[in-house]
Description:
Blueprint: H1 7-16, H2 19-23, H3 37-60, E1 68-72, H4 79-86, H5 99-109, E2 113-121, E3 125-132, E4 137-141, E5 144-148, E6 154-158, E7 167-170, H6 176-181, H7 183-196, H8 199-204, E8 205-212, E9 215-220, E10 225-229, H9 234-247, E11 253-255, E12 263-265
Parallel strand pairs: 1-3, 7-8, 10-11
Antiparallel strand pairs: 2-3, 4-5, 5-6, 8-9, 9-10, 11-12
Amino acid sequence: MAAGPTTAEKSGASKSRGPAERSSGPGTRNRRFRVPAPRLLLVAFGVLALVVGGVWALYGSTWFRVERVKTSGTRVLTAREVEAVAAVPLGAPLVTVDTEAIEARLKGAFPRIESIDVVRSWPHGIGLKVTERQPVLLVEKGGKFTEVDSTGTRFATVDTAPRGVPRLVLDSAASPSLRRFGADRLLREAVRVRGELPAEIARDTRVVRVTSYDSVTLELTGGRTVFWGSSEHGPAKARVLTALMKAAPKAGHFDVSAPTAPASSGS
């Protein structure tokens, strides 16, 4: 009778088994998940159908076509003239509308427009959101008024002066400042001064007179004048002028060119 394996042999055989042999078993075998080929084809067909359907809905169907245009934000311009220049293609697929081209057309036709946003309003609309430039000064010439915005840009000429906007008068023909800085630089200095004025004083300002770079005078209602000097230290001058007017409400002339030594006179 053949002798069976000894205890040592059994132990050695057990140790010689590799990790794969030890881990393998009826309940621990790795199983690979395989999708049947017909199911893969169905998934691929479904994805393709969604893509084709989406493209058709955007470009070929009548579901997402331009049916209306809405303009907002206009003050001087009218919605009708803005929409006429915008020339939004009614009936075209909404996705194909060239919004950048519309913006370019509007800015080219209307310098009054500071910014324009052309937005798609799904499923059938285009929105034109207009921001117009606001005049802060007027330059009068030949009975007409050129509007100037807060950046010093001349953007429109009108027959009637807008209410509450002061006129700019450049009395600098004989001043070295005109030759040194030029009319555009002096205009920007006047705009800067206008922008520093407190709201209540700005409302009363009728004329901003520029004689030179460091000689700006404000002409207010009631015959009052303010010698502002240069555009430097604007916030300090604004605070001093407000306090000075409260302290001397009947004064006719105020000097804040040196804000540390302001003065008032007249009555």
